[in-house]
Amino acid sequence: MPREGSCTTAKQPSIAAVGPFIISRTEHASYTTLLPHSHPHATITIVLGGGYHETIGGVTHELQSMSVVVKPAGTLHANHVDRRGARCLLLELTADAAECVKTVTNVFDTPRVAPLVRGAALALRTLVVLEKGGNEPASLALESLTMELTAIIAGETSAISAKEPAARVKRVRDRLEESWTGATLGDLAKEAGCHPIYLARMFRRAYGESIGSYARRARFTRAARAIASTDRETLSRIAMRMGYYDHSHLAHEFQTRTGMAPAEWRRLAAAS
């Protein structure tokens, strides 16, 4: 239970305990305010739909769909949910498990806030398995997915050094996350001020995949965020705006990456 102050309790439509994690899908009503409080477990919170402001250590972060917050156990924080409410995927790590995790990653050593790009599709696939409910194979799949997701989030929330060559690689990553550029590798290398071969090699070293693969992940994340953020824009319009050929192209990638259709994701991300 939360402590260090009073707060409202979120609804938990789906919840499961697998391995070291307690996994739940939580919902907060519009304009809910959670006064300063903390939790006994280390947590990873992925915003699915809606949004809220979270204050940690005197700094307030605006969290929209496909944002992730990592907090060590006992981290004091406060929240204010916006008019759309907030739907989240919550991973809680027990104290004993957190000690074991420290042997392979320091992700829970300090609060971390970041946009979720490489882990977006995996988070939605985790949500699909959670919603289907439990049997032994599903539980194993859910535990495997959460372990993999934790590893990806550890990488995404760890800041890259501002020193060269990381700074130029980060500029390319930021551009890919902002929009579907249509730029060639030569264009990106020219902007980064280096040779394309050098950029390709350093990007893979920094992020573990090619520039093209990362660009496709970033496009998917922007599409998922857009679908979750509004029901006024058609899926076909979102597909075209995000750089897909058409609605069927978006639907195929969504089904392949997450195991659900874009319309199903819109339903899960919307308020109950």
**Helical content (DSSP H or I, runs of 4+):** 40-55%
Number of strands: 8
Overall radius of gyration: 19 Å
Examine the secondary-structure arrangement and name the CATH architecture of the largest domain.
Sandwich
Distance between the first and last residues' Cα: 23 Å
CATH third-level topology of the largest domain: Jelly Rolls
Helix-strand category: alpha+beta
Oligomer: single chain
CATH superfamily of the largest domain: Jelly Rolls
Largest sheet: 8 strands, antiparallel
Tertiary shape: globular
Order of helices and strands: EEEEEEEHEHHHHHHHHH
Note the beta-strand portion. 15-25%
Low-confidence stretches: 1-8
CATH class of the largest domain: Mainly Beta
- Report the average pLDDT across residues: 85
Number of domains: 2
SS field, number of helical segments: 10
